[in-house]
Amino acid sequence: MKKITFLFALAFTLILAACGTGSDESSGEKGNSSKNSEKEQTLFKQLQEEGATVATSGTLLASTYYPEGSDELTGYDVEVLREIGKRLDIDISFEEIGVDGMLPALKNGRVDMVANDFEITEERKREFAFSEPYKYSFTSIIVREDDLSGIETLEDVSGKVHGGGATTTHSQLAEELGAELKTYNNVTNDVYLRDVENGRTDFIINDYYLQKLATEALPDIDVKIHPDIKFNEAKIAVVLPQDADELKKKVDEAITEMREDGTLKELSEEFYNADVSKRPEEDIPSVDEMDL
């Protein structure tokens, strides 16, 4: 894998929306079932005919970004969605949106799917559907190199300042753990990391693989991944409209094929230098299992 040496923005949680239409051919439960089935078939066929718009940030190495000196969007999430599009005969286009605006854009029909390293959560599942996971990871925290920002255990983040997106699950978790929040929009990753280095913030909760790439890409900034804090296994997936049953089925089939034929492994090793298409081998505790 070629070494990545450019700036990128940490992006954090999930988001999306879309719509479909159908006609009722009968009444009662059977009529509703027929209507829903037709609606989903119509949505899937509509995307095959008209193409699908996928929300992404374009600033999150190695999920969705522009390589230095290139105007071609790429990244693990981007290439996974392009491959899904090929297998489902859907023309995929990307719309770059800040992370806090992605789910609202999916909900109001501006986009048809979201792909930006979004984690499946029970709360999000109340409003959106998710594909089968195409990435498995876990959570870590970035701290200052010299003193670990005074954080020995996760319990020590209480009273510290966390940097992240306003509506992300990581920021929500930091607040639940008693941290103060400093929120950012779609800024480059050097801004996040230098704020930890200079003390404007104390730590950043985020995906381990993204943080590993961040610290490797900016070695001149005196921050590091905390060596003793790993928690919350994460499953990353495509975010879909909540009632898009047929679309979800087709996307799931494509992802399953890509896992079985080695495409996911090949793409993940290209962008992460690791096989993120399978669950971590080590036992990762959840926050609920930790003594906080």
Task: Put the structure in a nutshell.
By secondary structure, this protein is α/β, with parallel strands linked by helices.
Mean pLDDT over the full residue set:
86
Number of helix segments?
A: 9
Q: What percent of the residues sit in helical stretches (DSSP H or I)?
A: 25-40%
Which blocks of ≥5 consecutive residues have pLDDT under 50? Answer: 1-37
Question: How is the topology of this model organized?
Answer:
Blueprint: H1 28-50, E1 52-56, H2 76-88, E2 92-96, H3 99-107, E3 113-114, H4 122-125, E4 128-130, E5 135-144, E6 161-165, H5 169-176, E7 180-184, H6 189-197, E8 204-207, H7 208-217, E9 223-225, E10 231-236, E11 239-241, H8 245-260, H9 263-272
Parallel strand pairs: 1-2, 1-3, 6-7
Antiparallel strand pairs: 4-11, 5-8, 5-9, 5-10
Helix pairs in contact: 2-8
